[in-house]
Amino acid sequence: MAQLPLTQKRGLLLGPRGWTVVAAAVALLALLVPVLNLWVPEGQLLHVSDYTVSLAGKILCFAICALAMDLIWGYTGILSLGHGLFFALGGYGMGMYLMRQIGRDGQYKSDMPDFMVFLNWKSFPWQWGLSDSFVAQMLLVVLVPGLLALVFGWFAFRSRIKGVYFSIITQAMTFAAMLLFFRNETGFGGNNGFTDFKRILGVPLATAEMRVFLFALSGLTLIGFYLMARAIVNSKYGRVLQAIRDAETRVMFTGYNPLAYKLSIWTLSAVMCAIAGALYVPQVGIINPGEMSPAASIEIAIWAAVGGRATLIGPIIGAFFVNGAKSWFTVAFPEYWLYFLGALFIAVTLYLPNGIVGLFKKVTEKKQ
């Protein structure tokens, strides 16, 4: 695997051009899209449809996952094929709260979720003990995936498992979790998962205002995580991570212990995915074990590779490019979209090893 360049940039977090782009993105997310969706009538040229807002909100969540993957893979050299698990755990954490918010509006008019009534459950299982509290459940969204990543990472990195072996065991962990969540007795809805959400904090989910709010919240979260990631990779801590990626043995010879660095960035990356999952669920209205499938985790790595690893902005672009193409192909070519998508991945792998951002840099350098 070719080594990626060590980032040398120091000083300001972003230059004037970068801060201008961030300000424009904030304005777009917080002002322009809500105005064009809520106040410009349908049929007008500038109207942004509800479908577009929902699709963009969903992809913003995927972009957070791609950014998290870039920190652990692009900047630390650890390819995880298990980030779909952390994304799904965050989604289930939010989903449990949303299921409790349905109340007696379900099919069986019971305080318990419909799937529990159907399975003849008489009381909530222990893992649902805090599910009626929004604050407690949001804490669990962060703590459960974070603790799992911390424990798993401690054993894996302490045993010096890396490379393809680390990728395989992360994939195995995700697959095992998927099989566990498919079982009805775990109390997570089995293969159907959670769906039919009604409201959050007493506010109905099926309103245009809530849809726009969740979209803007996802976008602002992505911007916040991008700035945090930018600060990390430009710090001394980030430079050690990149040194571990390029020559871990040399880093150890200079007196650094890679374990703490790898474990901390791995856990942070997992928590970012979990928060993305929590934002994703109320926007799409469903969470099930399919989000833990091996393919879901591989897709996150593909977004980062297509956009360009070790660039931060590249994986975000990759998430939008791949998922945008996926949405268009499924509508325009419903029978062949998988072939087109596969061809796209092969072409990028063969001809764009540094992704879309690498191609853009090459073109601009030629012009200069």
Note the beta-strand portion.
under 5%
- Sheet with most strands: 2 strands, antiparallel
**Shape by Cα distribution:** globular
**What's the helical proportion of residues?**
55-70%
Distance between the termini: 29 Å
Total number of β-strand segments?
4
In the predicted model, the low-confidence regions spanning at least 5 consecutive residues are: none
Instruction: Note the run of SSEs as H and E.
Output: HHHHHHEEEHHHEHHHH
Number of helices, where a helix is a run of at least 4 consecutive DSSP H or I residues: 13
How are the strands ordered across the major sheet?
1-4
Mean pLDDT: 89
In angstroms, what is the radius of gyration? 21 Å
Give the structural class.
mainly alpha
Provide structural commentary:
There is one protein chain. The protein has helices at 16-38, 50-74, 83-102, 114-118, 134-158, 164-181, 208-233, 236-253, 258-284, 294-307, 313-332, 337-351, 355-367; strands at 194-195, 199-200, 203-204, 286-287. The protein has a two-stranded antiparallel ribbon with strand order 1-4. Strands 2-3 form a two-stranded antiparallel sheet. The model has no long low-confidence stretch (mean pLDDT 89). Helix content is 68%, strand content 2%. The chain has 368 residues and is mostly helical.
Fill in the keyword field for this structure.
368 residues; mainly alpha; two-stranded antiparallel sheet; 13 helices; 4 strands
